[in-house]
Specification:
By secondary structure, this protein is of the alpha+beta class. It is built from five helices and six strands, in the order H-H-E-E-E-E-E-E-H-H-H. The structure holds 2-acetamido-2-deoxy-beta-D-glucopyranose.
Amino acid sequence: MKLVGTIAFACVYLNVIVNAGPIPKYIHLCKRNDPEVGKCVRASIEVLRPHLKSGIPELGVPTLEPFHIPKIDIIRGQNSNNFRAGLSNIDVFGASDFQIKKLKVDVPERTISAVVEIPVLMLIADYDVDARILVVPVKGEGKVHANATAITGKAIGKYEIEERADGRYIKFTTLNVNLNVGDYNVKLENLFQGDPTLGQAANSILNDNKEELIKHAIPFLEEKVSEILLDTANNIVRNFKYDEVFPEK
Ligand SMILES: *[C@@H]1O[C@H](CO)[C@@H](O)[C@H](O)[C@H]1NC(C)=O
């Protein structure tokens, strides 16, 4: 009896999904001639937040908690010095606690701008480094743990309406992010094959020169974050017709 009930429920449920049309319920629609369209989009993002945490694979939305990045090359070693620095198996925790401070949608200009704050981000990854950081050699491979606090991002995205065989779709053409990081702490394990003195010295360099290192790292981080956001945004919006997801009225 239980099994029959379960199957019946599954059939009804599947039927509901199939008949629900292309826009899932948790996508709260906004109208493009709404004078407060920014407010509406912001409210939609709040409705979406719990779904963003776990991701929506069928819509190309990756899991945000943690956010996984397979690999980032920081220094690629194309210079004669052959220095390298890279991270792999990166998990970032805390991004889903983002707070939207401002959000503006300019429909005629096809521009979305936002100011977002994230109180704390925690990163765990595998690192591989052979480089100089502020003239000090740093070499090793192992786990890296890092925390950053008071992260502010200002993003401006421009989109186009793309004509496809079956209708019009949104496509983001550029997405530029400006970042600010309040503070951070980082720990590289197993530097210099586990030599505790050299390892501690290198970690101190990383944590005692924050202002300078943040200044150096920001342009790189901005480029990476912009790239990731542009990709993610397009993976999401390509699933929806413009006039369905962002109707005129
Ligand atoms: C990051 O924060 C967590 C939680 O507060 C803490 O356990 C960890 O030691 C911190 N890591 C670093 C590198 O500061």
